[in-house]
Write a structure and sequence with these properties.
Rossmann fold; Alpha-Beta Plaits; 3 domains; 7-stranded mixed β-sheet; 13 helices; 11 strands; 45% helix; globular; 6-PGluconate_DH-like_C_sf
Length: 378
């Protein structure tokens, strides 16, 4: 049973691990070269800033992927822990570094919790960050059983769901579902650097959704992309082919000849249908296919506690929310919360919320032809 742990690196993930473990009664020792970050994490309740007097049960290396091998070797030399894991989003490269540098690779097990935020640093951390989220573990044939059991217990204490993968298979998977989407988001956001003010005022939730993750720490992402460069480049090659097809279809749609426009329409429709099909493969919150849900839109004021008050009412009414999104109104001190619920629960929830004084907007189905930003304007 884990009674003590060390976390090296008190950014978003490391501090969240510390908060989750501390909440379960584990004594956590926080280590970081950034004194401000480690003090902040300690004040938040993620652990203590003293180095343990004796080896802890498990140490979590919450450092960039390129530093995992070196940091592991240093901490093993200092006998920090009985076993070690990491939270790096690349696995094959760090695994090679560990095998080359660490005194005892058998006491190390690679890990990657599939959770995060667009904001970084200890102030963005939460104890519930990993609850219900996949946590990849990449054991090797020489990983000792104590290390495997300890790290599995660590994942459970943090609320994660362990997923066993081989390191190179993990890197190919995250190139598709995480690393390339982040890079594409950054590239789209880069188009906005010199955006005219008039265009900025028209920005809607779709643009925010596409560019949200582009706000992450560039230094960390350079390290991540360097560690998984080939796999990401392979995905981008395929994407570049589709982009070229899309550009060609758009050129055809702009031509005068009806035959060319018809071909462009067919090609563009095929691309969009393929997008629908790919989107449907993303699991819902329970790990299966996305639930058949409908949105209920509720207006809230931009004041502390408003969202919590709304969610408390929804919980009191016994409605299960499958997903939620928050849209901010440009230039206004208000926002709109989209609650995804079952089709049978939606009308009841809307009625009950209105009875309690909330402003519920009508469904957008009848407004499908209106441009984004002009639908149900408020």
């Amino acid at each position: 049973m884990i009674r003590s742990a060390a976390v090296i690196g008190t950014g978003l993930i490391g501090t969240s691990v510390g908060l989750a473990l501390s909440r379960r009664g584990v004594r956590v020792h926080l280590l970081d070269n950034d004194e401000s970050a480690v003090r902040t994490a300690a004040v938040l309740g993620a652990g203590v800033t003293t180095r343990p007097a004796e080896p802890v049960d498990v140490a979590v290396l919450a450092v960039p992927p390129g530093q995992i091998g070196v940091v592991l070797a240093e901490q093993q030399a200092r006998r920090l822990a009985r076993c070690y894991t990491d939270v790096g989003s690349v696995k094959a490269g760090p695994e090679r570094d560990v095998l080359a540098l660490a005194a005892d690779p058998t006491s190390y097990l690679g890990g990657h919790p599939m959770a995060g935020k667009e904001r970084s640093g200890p102030l963005a951390a939460t104890a519930t960050l990993f609850e219900g989220r996949s946590w990849v573990l990449t054991p090797r044939s020489d990983t000792n059983s104590e290390t495997l059991n300890r790290v599995l217990e660590l994942v459970t204490l943090c609320g994660g769901v362990p997923v066993i993968m081989e390191s190179t298979a993990h890197d190919r998977a995250v190139a598709l579902v995480s690393h390339t989407p982040h890079l594409v988001s950054a590239l789209m956001a880069a188009r906005l650097r010199h955006m005219p003010d008039a265009a900025a005022r028209l920005a809607g939730q779709g643009l925010r959704d596409v560019t949200r993750i582009a706000g992450s720490d560039p230094r960390l992402w350079v390290d991540i992309l360097e560690g998984n460069a080939t796999a990401v480049a392979d995905v981008l090659d395929d994407l570049a082919e589709d982009l070229a097809v899309a550009v060609g279809a758009l050129r055809e749609l702009a031509r005068e000849a009806a035959e060319e426009r018809a071909q462009g329409t067919t090609t563009m429709a095929d691309l969009l249908v393929r997008g629908n099909q790919g989107r449907s493969r993303i699991p819902g919150k329970h790990g299966d296919a996305p639930a058949d849900c409908v949105p209920v839109h509720v207006l809230i004021g931009d004041a502390p506690g408003e969202l919590a008050r709304l969610l408390a009412v929804v919980s009191e009414l016994g409605v299960n929310v499958e997903d939620m999104a928050i849209e901010h109104s440009t230039g206004r001190p208000s926002g709109r919360v989209e609650l995804q619920v079952s089709p049978t629960a939606a009308p009841v929830l809307a009625e009950r919320l209105q009875e309690r004084g909330w402003t519920v907007q009508p469904g957008e189905e009848s407004d499908a032809s209106a441009p984004e930003g002009l639908v149900n304007s408020w």
